[in-house]
Amino acid sequence: VIACHAPTPNRNVLCSLHPIPIEVITRMKHGANQVRNLEIREGDEEDLKIVSWEPPRQPNGKLLGYIINMHPKTSHAHWASTGFQVPQPLCVSVQDFEAKNNTHEMNERDFPPGLYDLSIKTYTNPPTYTNESNENILVEIKMKGVEAATLDISIWIIVFILFLLLLVVIVVFLHKTRPKKPEGFVTVNPRYDTGPPTWSLKILNIFSREYIIDMQDLKLDEGCELGKGNFGLVLKGTLSLNSATIPIAAKVATENQEKDDIIQEAKLMLKLDCYHLVKAYGIAASPTQVYLVMDFMVGGSLSKFLRSLRLVDNDIFSALTLDQICAMGVQIADGMAYMACNRIVHRDLAARNCLIDDQRNIKISDFGMSRLTDSDYYQNCTTKCFPVRWLPPEYLTNYRFTCKSDVWSYGIVLWEILAAGATPYK
């Protein structure tokens, strides 16, 4: 400030020789030091990143430089394991920043791979008004080619070691849980064939001990035949099981080939567990005979039951209600659906092979021609006799059985029920 005694519009005269200065500091404006539009992009050279931002328009004081901080999002302990030092704040002068067209170059190799918070702060004079705000973005430093390849190899080595450990655990577990051979276990020499096979020894090689029935616990009534067919006989008897005596039916074969068929049927039946399938208790054998022990069904076969009904004008509904007929169809369908879900083709579904218990519940039996398949169909390669009246037409051309073949046979069974046990196509 100077004082003048003769001021004029054009000039001042008679003024003081020494002006009096005074310093005035304006109030700080919040946010005036904050940079804007912070960005980062890949540089033209490998491992180079370009950071750019817009300077503050009206900072709180003279702008001297910028403080760049790369703050890792991982712990300091992780950094110590990488061999890198935690990045220190970097000061970039305004002159260097403007000389590079408002950009700053960073080398990725100065930082280990990971995520960082990149922040920019301004440095002004006086510093009292510096750094009251800043802008930051997330930066990812990716692993280089050699480092990535090394990491991939390490991961695969770890996975391979874990796989070997898992394999060892599985082998040990299977070895521990494998059923032990019964005491006195005897194997049959296949080259020694000077006489008829000893069936009691043969089944020991096929079935586990829980499914082998002692002949002393099995009492058969030789004079009471429940059924007879190409496979042999079905005899009535009793079985001593868990301190109780229960009625059973035992399938008996006469020829050696038929005995092998009964063994195959027993292997299949012992895997099944469905209310509407006849239950197999196990298999018994003497030196010359094989017995498949099953539930005894008091009501006999469905076909005999239907033929025993007294009909009026050959009308099935004169002897059975609609609900009873529908229940028969539903129970048979339930058993067949269980077999289909387990990929088993029955191949001989008919009313004669559906048995009735004392509560008039139906259970499917006779699995002698059933086959467990791993594919969608089973192709017959033998000369077995099949029930033509219950077979689907396509079997006569391609000799293949599928679950759909059983669906056709199920339709014939429904016809048998409505026809009171009549023979199809007769």
TrEMBL record:
<keyword id="KW-0732">Signal</keyword>
<dbReference type="GO" id="GO:0005524">
    <property type="term" value="F:ATP binding"/>
</dbReference>
<keyword id="KW-0808">Transferase</keyword>
<dbReference type="InterPro" id="IPR003961">
    <property type="entry name" value="FN3_dom"/>
</dbReference>
<dbReference type="InterPro" id="IPR000719">
    <property type="entry name" value="Prot_kinase_dom"/>
</dbReference>
<dbReference type="GO" id="GO:0004714">
    <property type="term" value="F:transmembrane receptor protein tyrosine kinase activity"/>
</dbReference>
<keyword id="KW-0677">Repeat</keyword>
<dbReference type="GO" id="GO:0005886">
    <property type="term" value="C:plasma membrane"/>
</dbReference>
<keyword id="KW-0418">Kinase</keyword>
<protein>
    <recommendedName>
        <fullName>receptor protein-tyrosine kinase</fullName>
        <ecNumber>2.7.10.1</ecNumber>
    </recommendedName>
</protein>
<feature type="transmembrane region" description="Helical">
    <location>
        <begin position="153"/>
        <end position="174"/>
    </location>
</feature>
<keyword id="KW-0067">ATP-binding</keyword>
<keyword id="KW-0547">Nucleotide-binding</keyword>
<dbReference type="InterPro" id="IPR001245">
    <property type="entry name" value="Ser-Thr/Tyr_kinase_cat_dom"/>
</dbReference>
<dbReference type="InterPro" id="IPR011009">
    <property type="entry name" value="Kinase-like_dom_sf"/>
</dbReference>
<keyword id="KW-0325">Glycoprotein</keyword>
<keyword id="KW-1133">Transmembrane helix</keyword>
<dbReference type="Pfam" id="PF07714">
    <property type="entry name" value="PK_Tyr_Ser-Thr"/>
</dbReference>
<keyword id="KW-0472">Membrane</keyword>
<dbReference type="InterPro" id="IPR013783">
    <property type="entry name" value="Ig-like_fold"/>
</dbReference>
<dbReference type="GO" id="GO:0043235">
    <property type="term" value="C:receptor complex"/>
</dbReference>
<feature type="domain" description="Protein kinase">
    <location>
        <begin position="220"/>
        <end position="426"/>
    </location>
</feature>
<keyword id="KW-0812">Transmembrane</keyword>
<feature type="binding site">
    <location>
        <position position="251"/>
    </location>
    <ligand>
        <name>ATP</name>
    </ligand>
</feature>
<dbReference type="InterPro" id="IPR050122">
    <property type="entry name" value="RTK"/>
</dbReference>
<dbReference type="InterPro" id="IPR017441">
    <property type="entry name" value="Protein_kinase_ATP_BS"/>
</dbReference>
<keyword id="KW-0675">Receptor</keyword>
<dbReference type="InterPro" id="IPR020635">
    <property type="entry name" value="Tyr_kinase_cat_dom"/>
</dbReference>
<dbReference type="GO" id="GO:0007169">
    <property type="term" value="P:cell surface receptor protein tyrosine kinase signaling pathway"/>
</dbReference>
<dbReference type="InterPro" id="IPR036116">
    <property type="entry name" value="FN3_sf"/>
</dbReference>
<dbReference type="InterPro" id="IPR008266">
    <property type="entry name" value="Tyr_kinase_AS"/>
</dbReference>
